Amino acid sequence: SFQHVAIRHLEDRLKRAIQQIHADDTLPPVDTMVVCGGVASNMAVRDRLSALAAAHEVTPLYPPVRLCTDNGVMVAWSAIERLRLGVSDDPSELEVRARWPLG
Question: Which one, of 14, 25, 100, lies nearest residue 56 by Cα?
Answer without folding.
Answer: 14
